[in-house]
Write a structure and sequence with these properties.
- The chain is α+β, with helices and mostly antiparallel strands.
- The protein is built from 4 helices and 8 strands; from the N terminus they run H-E-E-E-E-H-E-E-E-E-H-H.
- It has helices at residues 8-20, 97-112, 173-181, 184-192; strands at residues 27-30, 44-50, 53-59, 75-87, 121-123, 142-149, 155-158, 161-172.
- Strands 1, 2, 3, 4, 5, 6, 7 and 8 form an 8-stranded mixed sheet that branches.
- A hairpin with a 2-residue loop joins strand 2 (44-50) and strand 3.
- Helix 3 crosses helix 4 (184-192).
- The radius of gyration is 16 Å and the shape is globular.
- 41% of the residues are buried.
Length: 206
C-alpha cells in the first residue's frame, strides 16, 4: 500500500485481522510486478504467529483501492482473498514457501479468470510446498489444495463490496479421490475433528 493512495479495501482487511490478532505485528511481504500488470499476482501477504501455526492472508484478489465506476458494488474484485495455515514450531519467522505458493495461486486466478469458491480443489500434481523448487520448501505427500471458508475470518463487508476469505488446505491425492466420491466438505469435516482450523502440516500422510 502506498502512503498517498486511499486503500479502503486494504484497510478493511487490516481491521478484520486486528480484531483476530490484536496488538500482533505480522510478517508482511510485497510482490512485483505491481497491480495492473497482465498476469500479476498479489499486492501483498501477511503471516501472523497464531496458536501452534502461522496464518497467512493475501491482499490483491479483492479490490484494495478506490472502486472503479464499472466495478460490481456487491463483490470486491474477485470477491475473495486466500488464506493458509501452516504448522509452527520453534522458528521465529514464518516459512517463505507459503508466500510464494499463494502468489502463484493468485496468478492462476488472474491469468485464467478463475472464480474460486468453497469446495473447489487445485491439484498441483506436485508437493503443495513447491519442493524442490523453493529453497525452504519441505517435501510433502500433499499435492492438492482444497478450499473452504476460513473458520475464523469468514466473509467481511468492505467499502468495495464483500470479501470471502478462502482457506487453502493441503490434502493428498488419496483424499482428493475421496472428495470426488463424496464431497470436499465431507472430507474436510473429517479432518476438522482433530484439526478444526485446518492447519496444513506438509509432513502429514493423508
Amino acid at each position: 500500500m502506498t502512503e498517498t493512495e486511499d486503500a479502503p479495501g486494504w484497510d478493511a482487511i487490516d481491521a478484520a485481522l486486528a480484531q483476530l490478532y490484536p496488538d500482533v505485528e505480522p510478517r508482511h511481504v510485497g510482490y512485483f510486478p505491481p497491480r495492473g500488470f497482465q498476469g500479476a499476482g498479489l499486492q501483498g501477504c501477511s503471516a501472523y504467529p497464531a496458536d501452534r501455526h502461522w496464518h497467512y492472508i493475501t491482499y490483491g484478489l479483492s479490490e484494495l483501492y478506490q472502486l472503479a465506476p464499472e466495478a460490481d458494488p456487491e463483490w470486491s474484485g474477485w470477491g475473495f482473498e486466500l488464506t493458509c495455515r501452516t504448522v509452527r514450531g520453534t522458528e521465529t519467522e514464518p516459512p517463505e514457501w507459503p508466500f510464494a505458493i499463494l502468489n502463484q495461486l493468485a496468478k492462476h486466478v488472474n491469468t485464467n479468470d478463475v472464480l474460486l469458491e468453497p469446495g473447489h480443489r487445485i491439484d498441483l500434481r506436485q508437493p503443495i510446498t513447491g519442493h524442490p523448487h523453493l529453497p525452504d520448501a519441505p517435501p510433502s505427500e500433499l499435492t492438492v489444495y482444497a478450499l473452504t471458508l476460513d473458520p475464523q475470518l469468514g466473509c467481511i463487508q468492505t467499502p468495495n463490496g464483500k470479501v470471502t476469505f478462502l482457506q487453502a488446505v493441503g490434502v493428498s491425492s488419496r483424499e482428493k479421490t475421496r472428495m470426488l466420491e463424496t464431497s470436499t466438505a465431507a472430507v474436510l469435516t473429517d479432518l476438522a475433528e482433530s484439526n478444526p482450523l485446518y492447519i496444513t502440516d506438509p509432513h502429514r500422510q493423508g
